[in-house]
Amino acid sequence: MDFFLQQLTNGLAVGSIYALIALGYTMVYGVLKLINFAHGDLFAIGAYLGLTLLTAFGLTRFLGPLGVVIVLALMVMGLVAVVGAVLERVAYRPLRQAHRLSAVVSAMGASIFFQNALMLIYGARYKVYPHDILPKNVVSLLGVEVPLVRLLVLLTSVLMMVALYLFIQKTRIGTAIRAAAIDQRAAKLMGINVDRVIMIVFLIGPALGGAAGLMVGLYYGQINFTMGWMYGLKAFTAAILGGIGNIPGAMVGGLLLGVIEAMGAAYLSIAWKDAITFIVLIAILIVRPTGLLGERVAEKV
Amino acid sequence: MKKMLLLVLLIGLLTVGSALAADPIRIGLMAPLTGAWASEGQDMKQIVELLAEDLNAAGGINGRQVRVIIADDGGDPRTAALAAQRLSTQNILAVIGTYGSAVTEASQGIYDEAGIIQVANGSTAIRLTEKGNPYFLRTCPRDDEQGLVGFKALKDGGFKAIAILHDNSSYAKGLADETRALLQKDGANIVFFDALTPQQNDYTAILTRMRAANPDVVFFTGYYGEAGLLLRQKMEMNWTVPFIGGDATNNPDLVKIAGPTAAAGYRFLSPPVPQDLDTPEAKAFMASYRNKYNAEPGSVWAVLAGDGFRVITKAIEATDSTDRDKIVAYLKNEMQDFPGLTGEISFDEKGDRVGDLYRVYEVNAEGKFVMLP
């Protein structure tokens, strides 16, 4: 039982990061029907920017661990949001009227651009966050020892996701985003500025991705310029699993994916972990082609 | 008038002839400058460029300058095949590289057909030199040699229950299989044998599973990025089992990733790096490297690319020829204990490096790599 609970917490921590990144995929898809393949790289940019800001300002000298993390998170989210908005303006908006495939190709190009830009700016070697920022406490939970930071990662992700959900459901802007997701032309006729809605989506999604990047950097320590690819792929899978275009779906999908991976590694074979994950994905898609919580049928990209 | 013309023609021919003689010797370098192994590739480029500069500044090879022509293999077999084709058209005499075994394998046939000598620097897979490819050599040891050293280290450590972890790359799996076979023949108790997926940052699920098998030691055959994370996450779990690693973990970044506390006591097998050798060649190289790049060279594999460059240029100088067969014959038969940057170098008939290359290293409390006697 201890073993199971331990693996469950392992899976939930990883899954919460997948979920945060998956939100970016799912929001963009919901509004634009575009898979933003550069999203994983925005996540990597978040991780690198966090490291740069941390060392540039010497934040640890003025603030406690919690203060450092909050200030850093706000700065990183702000900057990555700007990068996301610029990406939309430069790479996607000119192709708004073009065939959907063109935008997908543009997204892949942007991904390659970001990845190589990171390599050229920061170098190809692994970069490492300082080790002494976060506390190393271990908490005992139901007889399982869990590092405190692991719980904080999970908690922060869940908080952000709940905040986003409330924002989308309860505010005027959120309503406008939902309207644009259902029918862009009708939304325009209702007096919604769809271009602005898309811009907002490209601010929120990358900001969450950037926050996830920062969390990975702070918690795992090691970042490198190709990390966006692996996490992006997993988060994309999570978005599909939960039903792409559906925000609670991305959260459920991310957490579920993390737990499936951990359980696959725990009780079956570690080497087959990814294969097991994708078998589960295929099985779910056969039963529910729109994903767990998806309602609309996904169109071909 | 006719005489005049002849004279002009003669002078023309002579100048062209001498210009040809002073032409630089062209040597290729195929390295993963982009992709997942870009850090290794960038180091290879830096080292080979540095050695070429130093050589040219000292007068080149018998008066001829050397030019290094670089191609990016992206750490990917398909890209490598393209890079090899491009390099083959560049009139190069020999090529150095590359890092990954599968990547080298994709380029082997192309260089062989073009009659270009290839000196690989990081490709340790056994089969590469078993093909009877006359122009292929390597400065790195083979996996079976490392497997034997790994087996000895595990046996001498007196460990009862052994866990082996690899990462499914052809190199890491080869080494893991090799070591496991030797251990099983010896009757050792292997309680765990499995693979992780590289580049995933979170290995707690694997560590938790491994811990349940209760090993006395873990032998990890993968790369330094994952090894660093494993050590770090192992410490966070308060698990104190000793880790031993293969030579792909010989990179100072391992300590940066794991942190000195988590890395302390970690052991790995590796050919010696020039920092630990007190030969004049190694010292001169280190001085030159620090002077130019103001840093320490990264992994041993990049230094082995430097050794590839040095044996090739040495062979051209000694044979005073650019005839490929003569150069290869020199390397395989006449070159004995050439003072390399990673110890003495000789090659056997297959093109493999001979000699007892491996040392055991340990990370000390300050996070430095210390060669154990």
Oligomer: heterodimer
The major pleated sheet of chain A works out as:
2 strands, antiparallel
**Structure summary, number of beta strands of chain B:** 14
Task: Report the CATH architecture of chain A.
Answer: Orthogonal Bundle
State the CATH class of the largest domain in chain B.
Alpha Beta
Q: What is the CATH level 1 assignment of chain A? A: Mainly Alpha
Largest beta-sheet details of chain B: 7 strands, mixed
Shape of chain B: elongated
Q: List low-confidence stretches of chain A.
A: 297-301
- Percent of residues in beta strands of chain A: under 5%
Tell me the series of helices and strands of chain B, N- to C-terminal: HEHEHEHEEHEHEHEHEHHEHHHEEEE
Strand order of the largest sheet of chain B: 7-6-8-9-10-13-14
pLDDT averaged over residues of chain B: 89
* Spatial order of strands in the largest sheet of chain A: 1-4
Counted beta strands of chain A: 4
Q: How much helix, percentage-wise, in residues of chain A?
A: over 70%
Number of helices of chain A: 11
Low-confidence stretches of chain B: none
Identify the CATH architecture of the largest domain in chain B: 3-Layer(aba) Sandwich
Question: Would you identify the CATH H-level superfamily of the largest domain in chain B?
Answer: Response regulator
Q: Radius of gyration of chain B from the CA trace?
A: 23 Å
